[in-house]
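dumping this here so i dont lose it
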């Protein structure tokens, strides 16, 4: 049985810590009923925040909320068309209210409208606005990166009542039973953190959620709509009361002699064709079938057909129970063969044809509605694109318009994926957005190698000349790939070491991480250092293809080794272990090329917290990458000034960081931003330079490793994502494609 979604709604308004009965700034609407009702427009929820004096504000609130509701349901076309019209109507009313007033005297507004249809939630916002969707484990926020609250701003976030152009921001998500939608006035809602919202409203019930939010409001003025999604099973059998027969008083009658032994008169037999038609008509439930498939006029016609079905069942001979009658003496009646009315038979045969025509009409109407919705999405996308072109001098505004255009064309293409107009508009918006965000889009990205072994989790990647090394922690293997002479394809792939392999008489343990030891000083050729969980350092010589185990000192200090790195200081190569459990970076200085002496703690500052660190890179400075998107820069164990800047979107679930570990062979920092499916290039002060994204977004869905060879004649970037290894040439800085 399907789950039918319902809602439980609470309206909260708090002033100076006291809950108010009047909630003029909030509104909930249901689609007005009509015999010839248009398609389902869902339930509408509205929250408005006005600036200005309290005097007369509630009256204007009520007018604006009512105006938004009536305009939405009276506007034909798609849901987004109705929402856009509603927000424009509110803006027009405010402009009329503010006529003749200076900009600082008029009333301005921020508005959030949400439409719930089935399990789809459509959100439209203009001006300062916030909507949260809370569910177990997460809180979705629309917009996801709220800008600072500014009632005097212009462009995409301008409040209503300030300019004639209405910049509507659209969002969409799906909901399920247990989710809670929170539409709140933004001045107060911006103070709430997602964990507070989740704790206040998820699985608490609407009444308790309102009390919790009132407590969070304290003495602040606050208003919010709380919409809890509920679910009931559709199609559950309902017990019907059995009708009890009304007892009748028996009529007294005189029994004649001829009636002493009553006889049952034989029922006339029906022709087989009539019995079949009547039985089939009796089994048809036309109203139920068509009501679920088509709505409005089709449902009305279905009711008419259902009445016709009942009429035909009564007319045609069927399996109705015939009450035996008492026989009375009469002369024998000559049996006559049953006959059927030609009109009735024709009507019975015509019913399936009528049903087919109605269903065809229903699908034609649905197709017409989808075409109208598609055209509306495309029109809106073109409008957003035109606004972006008109605001190219304002990068922030143009970027928001391009993002809206891209979102709208994506939704349109979900309806008609091969439409050339929508595809062209999407590509133009994406290209313009890439230019603003300094994106180099990687086309025809073909994997060099796919790690198909069960349980593979490839990650760290290191390249040296024609050799590429990849550590697969899932299978406990280190692979060596060798480029062909053209440097485009692999000519050889071997496993150089794996978990359980005997090296110098002892089994290899879990492979934690690896780093490259460059040639220099007393070390005459480069080698690969692999940290073994059993406390050994495995060293691989790619020239001779040999693996030897090197002892490590200070194993008793280890707590939770996370990553390793090396740094060549012009005389020797030091080896480093990032130990998050120890909250320290262990520094090993070689003695006779061995790291058997106890390490020293590199971090000397008390305020450095390595909890949550996932990777590090060293070039004289130590750069520590954290899973929450932070990067900390250290020098001689002390924090250095460093700040990520110029990023339109912050890091999300970063997984790796890279720079050269010797000399200045790599000019930049590179960060694998797995959550945003991109590789970032940064200056070493944290300022953003550019980013690399795959044209096929899935290619960078799970980035785990990055390595860059900037010193080669053709600089190359290596990426490990999911279970694939990629390599591509780095274009000159001026390139955009």
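and the seq i came up w/
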């Amino acid at each position: 049985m399907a789950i039918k979604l319902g809602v439980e709604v609470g309206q909260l308004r708090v002033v100076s810590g006291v809950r108010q009965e009047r909630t003029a700034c909030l509104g909930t609407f249901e689609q007005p009923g009509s015999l010839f009702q248009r398609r389902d427009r869902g339930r509408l929820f509205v929250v408005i925040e006005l600036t200005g004096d309290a005097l007369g504000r509630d009256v204007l609130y009520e007018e604006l909320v009512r105006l938004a509701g009536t305009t939405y349901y009276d506007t034909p076309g798609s849901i987004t068309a109705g929402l856009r019209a509603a927000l424009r109507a509110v803006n027009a009313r405010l402009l009329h209210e503010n006529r003749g007033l200076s900009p600082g005297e008029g009333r301005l507004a921020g508005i959030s409208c949400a439409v719930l249809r089935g399990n789809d939630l459509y959100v439209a916002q203009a001006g300062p606005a916030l909507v949260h969707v809370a569910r177990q484990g997460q809180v979705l926020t629309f917009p996801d990166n709220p800008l600072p609250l500014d009632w005097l701003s212009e462009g995409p976030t301008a409040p209503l009542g300030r300019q004639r152009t209405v910049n509507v921001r659209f969002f969409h998500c799906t909901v399920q039973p247990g989710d809670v939608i929170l539409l709140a006035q933004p001045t107060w809602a911006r103070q709430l953190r997602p964990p507070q919202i989740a704790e206040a409203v998820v699985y608490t019930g609407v009444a308790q959620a309102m009390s919790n939010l009132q407590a969070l409001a304290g003495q602040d003025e606050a208003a919010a709509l709380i919409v809890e999604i509920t679910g009931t099973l559709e199609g559950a059998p309902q017990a019907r009361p059995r009708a009890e027969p009304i007892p009748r008083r028996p009529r007294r009658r005189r029994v004649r002699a001829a009636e002493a032994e009553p006889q049952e008169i034989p029922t006339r037999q029906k022709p087989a064709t009539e019995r079949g038609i009547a039985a089939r008509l009796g089994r048809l439930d036309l109203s139920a079938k068509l009501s679920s498939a088509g709505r409005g006029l089709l449902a009305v016609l279905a009711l008419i057909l259902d009445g016709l079905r009942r009429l035909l069942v009564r007319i045609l001979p069927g399996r109705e129970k015939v009450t035996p009658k008492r026989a009375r003496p009469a002369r024998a009646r000559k049996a006559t063969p049953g006959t059927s009315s030609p009109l009735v038979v024709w009507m019975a045969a015509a019913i399936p044809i009528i049903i087919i025509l109605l269903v065809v009409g229903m699908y034609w109407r649905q197709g017409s509605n989808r075409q109208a919705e598609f055209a509306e999405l495309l029109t809106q996308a073109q409008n957003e694109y035109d606004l972006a072109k008109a605001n190219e001098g304002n990068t922030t505004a143009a970027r928001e318009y391009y993002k809206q255009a891209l979102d709208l064309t994506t939704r349109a293409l979900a309806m008609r994926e091969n439409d050339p107009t929508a595809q062209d508009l999407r590509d133009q918006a994406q290209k313009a957005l890439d230019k603003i965000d300094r994106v180099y889009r990687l086309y025809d990205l073909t994997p060099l190698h796919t790690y198909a072994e069960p349980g593979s989790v490839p990650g760290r990647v290191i390249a040296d000349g024609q050799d590429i090394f990849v550590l697969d922690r899932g299978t406990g293997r280190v692979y060596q790939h060798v480029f062909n002479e053209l440097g485009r394809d692999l000519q050889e792939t071997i496993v150089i070491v794996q978990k359980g392999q005997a090296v110098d008489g002892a089994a290899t343990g879990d492979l934690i991480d690896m780093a490259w030891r460059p040639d220099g000083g007393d070390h005459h050729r480069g080698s690969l250092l692999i940290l073994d969980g059993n406390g050994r350092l495995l060293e691989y010589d790619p020239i001779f293809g040999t693996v030897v185990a090197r002892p490590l000192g200070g194993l008793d200090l280890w707590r939770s080794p996370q990553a390793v790195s090396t740094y060549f200081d012009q005389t020797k190569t030091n080896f480093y272990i990032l130990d998050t459990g120890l909250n320290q970076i262990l520094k090993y200085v070689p003695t006779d090329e061995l790291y058997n002496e106890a390490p020293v703690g590199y971090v000397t500052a008390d305020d450095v917290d390595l909890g949550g660190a996932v990777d590090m890179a060293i070039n004289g400075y130590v750069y520590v990458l954290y899973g929450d998107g932070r990067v900390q820069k250290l020098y001689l164990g002390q924090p250095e000034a460093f700040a990520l800047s110029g990023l339109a979107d912050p890091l999300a679930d970063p997984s790796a960081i890279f720079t050269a570990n010797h000399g200045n062979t790599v000019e930049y920092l590179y960060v694998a931003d797995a959550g945003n499916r991109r590789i970032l290039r940064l200056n070493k002060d944290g300022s953003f330079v550019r980013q690399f994204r795959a044209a096929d977004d899935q290619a960078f869905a799970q980035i785990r490793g990055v390595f860059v060879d900037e010193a080669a004649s053709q600089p190359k970037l290596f990426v490990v994502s999911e279970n694939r290894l990629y390599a591509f040439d780095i274009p000159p800085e001026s390139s955009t494609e």
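The chain has three domains: 3-233, 365-437, 449-729.
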